[in-house]
Amino acid sequence: xxxxxxxxxxxxxxxxxxxxxxxxxxxxxxxxxxxxxxxxxxxxxxxxxxxxxxxxxxxxxxxxxxxxxxxxxxxxxxxxxxxxxxxxxxxxxxxxxxxxxxxxxxxxxxxxxxxxxxxxxxxxxxxxxxxxxxxxxxxxxxxxxxxxxxxxxxxxxxxxxxxxxxxxxxxxxxxxxxxxxxxxxxxxxxxxxxxxxxxxxxxxxxxxxxxxxxxxxxxxxxxxxxxxxxxxxxxxxxxxxxxxxxxxxxxxxxxxxxxxxxxxxxxxxxxxxxxxxxxxxxxxxxxxxxxxxxxxxxxxxxxxxxxxxxxxxxxxxxxxxxxxxxxxxxxxxxx
Amino acid sequence: xxxxxxxxxxxxxxxxxxxxxxxxxxxxxxxxxxxxxxxxxxxxxxxxxxxxxxxxxxxxxxxxxxxxxxxxxxxxxxxxxxxxxxxxxxxxxxxxxxxxxxxxxxxxxxxxxxxxxxxxxxxxxxxxxxxxxxxxxxxxxxxxxxxxxxxxxxxxxxxxxxxxxxxxxxxxxxxxxxxxxxxxxxxxxxxxxxxxxxxxxxxxxxxxxxxxxxxxxxxxxxxxxxxxxxxxxxxxxxxxxxxxxxxxxxxxxxxxxxxxxxxxxxxxxxxxxxxxxxxxxxxxxxxxxxxxxxxxxxxxxxxxxxxxxxxxxxxxxxxxxxxxxxxxxxxxxxxxxxxxxxxxxx
Lengths: 335, 346
Hints:
The complex is a heterodimer of chains A (335) and B (346).
Chain A: H1 2-11, H2 22-27, H3 31-41, H4 43-60, H5 62-68, H6 78-81, H7 114-150, H8 152-167, H9 170-185, H10 192-206, H11 210-223, H12 227-234, H13 239-247, H14 252-275, H15 286-293, H16 301-329
Chain B: H1 10-41, H2 48-54, H3 61-70, H4 77-90, E1 92-95, E2 101-104, H5 119-154, H6 159-173, H7 176-190, H8 206-240, H9 243-250, H10 255-284, H11 287-292, H12 298-307, H13 311-339
Antiparallel strand pairs in B: 1-2
Helix pairs in contact in B: 1-4, 1-13, 5-6, 5-8, 5-10, 6-8, 7-8, 8-10, 9-10, 10-13, 12-13
């Protein structure tokens, strides 16, 4: 990336103090700069980014926002908020109007505040999706780098494992693994919830790294034949250094794109796992609320719609943002 | 690069198929062993669920130890793995109590801890529901997806084309579980447009079979057709820009003939190959659809087995899903060579 800029500087015949002419300023832009500029001009991408940022703020400051609205996860006594016969809330939706104490209403049967659950659910969803995306990216990049660069037996073994994992349907595997993980590591009943939380991340990672590995391997296969890599090899740069300093910087664009498209997939997958009852149990999550809200849907549809809107909005925004990032980084799609 | 290479002898194609089958067999046996190991070493006690089941949730350590002994969990792992693999080919008797044995005929995949019926028999019993669901959805996926994709490709660049593509993008952004759930709630529970969701065997009552599966078919089919719209649109645009299409047009063939007879035929090749894999995944796990619409298929069986730690059943469902996907991969690889004469098999 330094080479083109140096060329531009040597070509520049103007004295240092003179105002720069427009074409030369553009010629000196780095590819990252160009991508950022294109992204900034894309209003759909900016809108999606705004939505994602709002959700990120909600996830980080869930507690503070809940305090701001005066709601919390604790329920003093369900009977204070719930009609014990119909098990539906006394005030607010579905029958009453807007209840300022509980802006989203309260949950049927247990009487917890919906807004608080929604806010903390956003946090759970985003933590799980982000950790799974980061971990599977790390695993996928390492596997792809090694398989693509080393080739031979290493490549064959790693790709065999990758294909093996790709043949196992994700949901079935998650169904099989989640209970085993929580059974094996959840010896302490008090920590069972925490273990389940980590086992969800582990399952998502375990079955999510393969696409990244294949993508990276493909890129590395072509990169390793390029002159600058061969030059580095010829002067005796050790392999790990070639991988880190020569190859990895050239993979930033595909990694960023794959990462940003993996995030929404994990948000959706987490919701799906929770719906099946193998997701997190010790903290509120959107998927959990969805699963619980189905039986109340005919009388209390708002209770289901809150988490659904959260998930759908977040997933669509992340998807659009990922698509926009891909377009911005791809020099072929100049609009 | 000199003259074009001579056409490869058919032995090459045959050798490729054999090689591909052997590779598939290797993946398959690795899977059988690793899934066995997962359930052997994974849980703290593989018979915990069975123990709870037989004692009404008052499982004692003594009884659990007894069960572990009966089911061979105290024997060396390798000898039990051998028994398991041998059971797949020849069947075996499984000891249940002190003197009770259950005959598990080949292919034996273990006994369900809940019903003590061989897991494979139960799998076969539930297979028709899953197959019905997958086939019906597949028909809708292909019909809706390919038709709308071809139409969009013919009207490329128009408002209708752009609207269709954006709509499919938006739709596939909604997680499937939520989509299916809302479809079920609004069209079955609230509005009763499709009042009878569920599965009745085709042989029992064809009308009930159809009316019960219609809504799940539509939900699964329409949701998954979106990617086929985009995909067949792309394949069709590629095909329509080929030289032979221009030739066909120049000959004065009608636009319809050119699109469907010349264009679609070549565009279908990549679509069919991708569809093969997707269909396998439909067969292997329509878990959400089966749970939401109450269809007693394989996915639902697996989920129910998880809840009571019925590990042989879980093992069987995972194995079944993986086998279906592996077989589909092999079939698609071979078919691709047959369908597309340009493919050089290596």
